Amino acid sequence: MIAxxxxxxxxxxxxxxxxxxxxxxxxxxxxxxxxxxxxxGAALVAFLGVLVAFAALMxxxxxxxxxxxxxxxxxxxxxxxxxxxAGTWGSHEGSMxxxxxxLTGFGAMAAIAGRGLPRGLKALxxxxxxxxxxxxxxxxxxxxxxxxxxxxxxxxxxxxxxLLQDPALAxxxxxxxxxxxxxxxxxxxxxxxxxxxxxxxxWARWVRPWTLAAWSMLTIGITLGAFWAYYELGWxxxxxxxxxxxxxxxxxxxxxxxxxxxxxxxKRGALSGWTVFLAxxxxxxxxxxxxxxxxxVLTSVHAFAVDPTRGVLLLAILGVTAGAGFGLFAWRxxxxxxxxxxxxxxxxxxxxxxxxxxxxxxxxxxxxTLFPLIREAATGEAIxxxxxxxxxxxTPLMAALLILLPxxxxxxxxxxxxRGVLQRLWAAALIAVAVGxxxxxxxxxxxxxxxxxxxxxAWLIVGALAEILERVRAFRAPAAESWRRLTGLPxxxxxxxxxxxxxxxxxxxxxxxxxxxVEAAEALPIGGALDAGAYHVVLQDVVGVEGPNYDAERAExxxxxxxxxxxxxxxxxRFYPAGGQSTSEVGICYQGLSHxxxxxxxxxxxxxxxxxxxxxxWNPWATLIFVGPGIMALGxxxxxxxxRLRLGVARRREQPA
Length: 657
Known about the structure:
Layout: H1 2-30, H2 33-62, H3 69-74, H4 81-86, H5 92-113, H6 119-143, H7 167-196, H8 201-232, H9 243-268, H10 272-294, H11 308-332, H12 347-379, H13 387-404, H14 418-442, H15 448-471, H16 479-487, H17 491-515, E1 518-524, E2 529-532, E3 535-546, E4 551-561, E5 564-567, E6 572-576, E7 581-585, E8 587-591, E9 594-604, E10 611-619, H18 623-640
Antiparallel strand pairs: 1-10, 2-3, 3-4, 4-5, 4-6, 6-7, 8-9, 9-10
Helix pairs in contact: 1-2, 1-6, 2-5, 2-6, 5-6, 5-7, 6-7, 6-11, 7-8, 7-9, 7-10, 7-11, 8-9, 8-18, 9-10, 9-12, 10-11, 12-13, 14-15, 15-17, 17-18
């Protein structure tokens, strides 16, 4: 009965979203406050309907109601409670319901938090958000019903993919979808502004908080996914340029460009057309990601394997929605205001260059992701595009961007002073060069590019600190005055500094882990040993263990350095009887910022005794890879709390149309 209530609530949400479109559109035409309020109320009701459906599906997973087809295909009564809850969004149907929940939730937030928007622009935004809700709710109801019944119901389910039975993967999709779908409000604001024919500073002021919230959630979601891949898949790395990884990375890059472009539009009224274009592109890339993951065109551990028919429907949704948005842009963009002019050396120019490099980097990722699919469709020949391509194309673009990044905030608007910026950053440049040379001489003289990367990370960190010190004139004013200015800085300034500093921390971790990583692999009997760098790993024993829904072989290892015991990791090979699948659980020793990472492989028959393949890695400074994005996301959330970006700002006097 609960599943039927959920299905009814989902259909009701679809009907109410249709009403949301009609009421809000008519309210804009008739300039009716009553109809506008009714449209906003419909947005809230649609969200509540999807929330009821989502709660019904979660209840079915928790109580193991195998009469629901989605539960029977993706759950098992032996699964721990956390993974039964996570199974709600662990399938194609459940993930689409989560997408609809986030979409209608952001629509409800736009209705509640949009008090400062001009009435006409807000009504159109709610209407466009309703259109997106109708499209995805209709797809979910008619093509991917998560609450469909099975008759007769099976006695037991087939269980969730064991790779997804992990705490990081339990929380990864909600954060990722909050970022993906949060960009829908930016898309709706852009379409509404194009219909109104007005893209101005006040509009950009409203775009920024939504983009910032979505970008922060995407950052957390991508980081959780990278951390899961690092310690769950057992290959020793954290990013492989997998097409599904790229599908989440492209919206993140475009959202980062949009954040910087919207600043120019808000402060100077310039780049309005480009800002609108990025607002449309950001959510379009999110929808592209939904298509890639769910269409069956990709083979990936991250992808949902579904039938091609539903993939075609998703492609149609992407084509119609994005096509309509960009078609409207092509029609209305020539009439948008051009904004103020600025000198080649200015903060505006620095942000334009930032956008060019981010756009080019996104284009390289897009090409590397789609080219194999296009080539296979055209010729039938399967090829792969891997890390070498991205290292040659993406890395130089991002390196150029990171070199220029600290200078941008120190330039003045309209006309800047390049010499003055160099004078303010000379100490940061000197420290970065010194760090690079010290790394080259002390760590390894054979890794010149690695030392250059370390210098780049130091440049970003010291440059971010130099920018905040320049804001308070730390070296030009008395200490008491500098402290007063420091404590009085707006949260937006602190957030920007933390985001840039976190990026530098990530670069340090990524460069060290990539350049100085050590790997060793050997088939070991009990008592056998191997060396990974300075660490000596001994296989003490392998024992059988029984988990809540799996059986496992657990290795008991000892790790020493210079004869001193360091830790005793216990990697496992697990077998899940319900799904007939095996996985590896790695053992990680945390040594400061570095990791000793050990994987237990398959058991093999030896000449005298069984042996196990053991792989060990020394990953220097790997912790910074995950701490850096966390600092970046924290910076975004701190900026979002700035009263100047708060969603509920007071209403400004509405300008005449």
